Amino acid sequence: MTWLITGGAGYIGAHVVRAMTAAGERAVVYDDLSTGVAERVPDGVPLVVGSTLDAERLARTLADHAVTGVVHLAAKKQVGESVERPLHYYRENVEGLRVLLDAVTAAQVPAFVFSSSAAVYGMPDVDLVSEETPCAPLSPYGETKLAGEWLVRATGRATGLATASLRYFNVAGAAGPELADTGVFNLVPMVFEKLTEDAPPRVFGDDYPTPDGTCVRDYIHVVDLAEAHVAAARVLRSSPGRDLTLNIGRGEGVSVREMIDRINAVTGHDRPPAVVPRRPGDPARVVASADRAAAELGWKARLDVQDMITSAWEGWVRLHPEAVRT
């Protein structure tokens, strides 16, 4: 099969492209390069620069490359920005998805993997979040991901399109320094940034009902996440009309304070965190039950938090050599 990977020049997308090609699948990248980096696209993989709102270019790309499956990662994903610009997020994430699905069904592409998020759950009051946990997103970003799942599922039911919505938990790490996350929106790069500035990392609240008072999260290595996409793509290829919704996590919680301690140890720093007020809407604990992904895909995360921090730090140092302590 030939897989069109939207957002394939982004941090996660570039890992998915490499995992797909390493597994022997053909890939085509479609990216508007608003946050993606063209140099992340491997040699020999076609790159089409375009928006998912451009119906004509999408249709032409699907036809020109004889696309037989789509992995849709292109989206806006900053929670805070989504609160400030909800119309922009709904346009890019929901309308862009609708236009893409219209092109996919018109071209009779049989398989579609959708990049969703644990943000669809909001503030779940459970030890382990399963796919049956009620969804109550707290931001327009989370809302667009949940609406995207509905749109993907409804399209599959109406047309026979095989679909999978993968709900990512907290993604970190890199397959190599050149594929590192260049954004500073997640905990690991946010801590790296503070350490590079010789400033204390921030902890947003230490009075949560958790063992050390800080929020607990489930971290997943981006390499494992990319391999989950390959597994989902192959299941859809062999199961026409299939409809899957799956958590992609490790099923293990790590607190923010513990994560900062581990980052200090890996990077050679010794910066205790500064506690600042809670952020509105931060749930105390969000940890995945990944049993369904194991059962449906035969997939399980292999890499641990140490692997995530070490590989992410190598990428950070490549971009910020001043971060190394001498």
Topology:
Blueprint: E1 2-6, H1 11-22, E2 26-31, E3 47-49, H2 55-64, E4 69-72, H3 79-84, H4 86-106, E5 111-117, H5 140-159, E6 162-168, E7 170-172, H6 187-196, E8 202-204, E9 216-221, H7 222-238, E10 243-248, E11 253-255, H8 256-267, E12 274-276, E13 285-286, H9 291-297, H10 305-319
Parallel strand pairs: 1-2, 1-4, 2-3, 4-5, 5-6, 6-10, 7-9, 8-12, 9-13
Antiparallel strand pairs: 9-11
Helix pairs in contact: 1-7, 2-4, 4-5, 6-8, 8-10
Catalytic activity: UDP-alpha-D-glucose = UDP-alpha-D-galactose
Domain NAD-dependent epimerase/dehydratase: 3-249
Pfam families: Epimerase
Can you identify the CATH class of the largest domain?
Answer: Alpha Beta
What name does CATH use for the topology of the largest domain? Rossmann fold
Number of domains: 2
Biggest β-sheet strands, sense, barrel: 7 strands, parallel
Could you give the count of β-strands?
Answer: 13
Q: Quaternary arrangement of the chains shown? A: single chain
**What strand order characterises the main sheet?**
3-2-1-4-5-6-10
Could you name the ranges where pLDDT drops below 50 across 5 or more consecutive residues? none
- Order of SSEs: EHEEHEHHEHEEHEEHEEHEEHH
Our measurement of the CA-to-CA distance between the termini, rounded to an integer number of angstroms, reads 49 Å
Radius of gyration from CA coordinates: 19 Å
CATH homologous superfamily of the largest domain, by name?
A: NAD(P)-binding Rossmann-like Domain
What is the tally of helical segments? 10
Question: How helical, in percent, are the residues?
Answer: 25-40%
Task: State the secondary-structure class.
Answer: alpha/beta
What is the level-2 CATH architecture name of the largest domain?
A: 3-Layer(aba) Sandwich
Shape estimate: globular
What fraction strand? 15-25%
